[in-house]
């Protein structure tokens, strides 16, 4: 009920199901709120979770988290203990976009590149297609891929290799603009999507050589240790998390915005 009251007071449209460009423009963000919030939560508690994105979450928990993310609320503390719900919310956000993150416009191009046999040519063609994404799609796609590449680094523990990630997440990133159920579209697309997403995750640093700051909105409480806001390779072996235990759910920036709006 508290969440619903919060939603009712929220003047903006929800993030879920809203075109990416519209959500970014309205919220003044570079990375969509559900993408950044879910990535920041998963960086702290989900990286070693076996079968992340593959194991389903409880429906009521998922619904509650989506409602929290929909109105930029800071009530995210309880979801730390359930990385599968967080991964589920991220998948839902991507799937509910009116147009896939990798766009309808480039669908034919992506699927053509998928069947290129020569690996070097394939990578070059994929890189060229990436460059054709609209700027806001490109930035969010890069952010997500860099995170997925980081997740794959611990695949010995979490079992999420680039191939496994591509299989479970790919159909939420690209689908055909045709009539039919989501399941039919996903089936028709999935082989191509895996052939596209897997090499991009495998070679994420070649596709996107620049560093990505995951805490891009600075709405999340960074780690106490100096030098780095994200856990790149600071040798902090005892703690592979990226955030102080204070929780990014403090989300001070967004809460401040909310108070102003109200």
TrEMBL record:
BP terms from Gene Ontology: regulation of actin cytoskeleton organization; regulation of Rac protein signal transduction; signal transduction
Molecular function per GO: GTPase activator activity
GO cellular component: cytosol
Keywords: GTPase activation, Phosphoprotein
InterPro entries (alphabetical): RHG17/44/SH3BP1-like, Rho_GTPase_activation_prot, RhoGAP_dom
Region listing for Disordered, in residue ranges: 225-262
UniProt keyword Ribosomal protein present: no
SUPFAM superfamilies: GTPase activation domain, GAP (SSF48350)
Source organism, top-level taxon: Eukaryota
Rho-GAP domain boundaries: 18-208
Matches recorded under CDD domains: RhoGAP_nadrin
Biased composition (Polar residues): 225-241
Keyword Phosphoprotein: yes
Protein name: Rho GTPase-activating protein 17
Organism name: Neovison vison (American mink)
């Amino acid at each position: 009920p508290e969440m619903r009251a919060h939603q009712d007071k929220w003047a903006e449209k929800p993030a879920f199901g809203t075109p990416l460009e519209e959500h970014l423009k309205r919220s003044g963000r570079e990375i969509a709120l559900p993408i950044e919030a879910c990535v920041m939560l998963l960086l702290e508690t989900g990286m070693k979770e076996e079968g992340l994105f593959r194991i389903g979450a409880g429906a009521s928990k998922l619904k509650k988290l989506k409602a929290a993310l929909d109105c930029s609320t800071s009530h995210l503390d309880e979801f730390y203990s359930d990385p599968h719900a967080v991964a589920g919310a991220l998948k839902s956000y991507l799937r509910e976009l009116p147009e896939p993150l990798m766009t309808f416009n480039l669908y034919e191009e992506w699927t053509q590149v998928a069947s290129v046999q020569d690996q070097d040519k394939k990578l070059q063609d994929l890189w060229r297609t990436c460059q054709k994404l609209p700027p806001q799609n490109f930035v969010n796609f890069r952010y997500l891929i860099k995170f997925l590449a980081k997740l794959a680094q611990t695949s010995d523990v979490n079992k999420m290799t680039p191939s496994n990630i591509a299989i479970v997440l790919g159909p939420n990133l690209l689908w055909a603009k045709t009539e039919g159920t989501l399941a039919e579209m996903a089936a028709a697309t999935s082989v191509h999507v895996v052939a596209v997403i897997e090499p991009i995750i495998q070679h994420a640093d070649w596709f996107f050589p620049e560093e990505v700051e995951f805490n891009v909105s600075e709405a999340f409480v960074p780690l106490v240790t100096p030098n780095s806001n994200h856990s790149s390779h600071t040798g902090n072996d005892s703690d592979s998390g990226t955030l102080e235990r204070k929780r990014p759910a403090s989300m001070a920036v967004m809460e401040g915005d909310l108070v102003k709006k109200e």
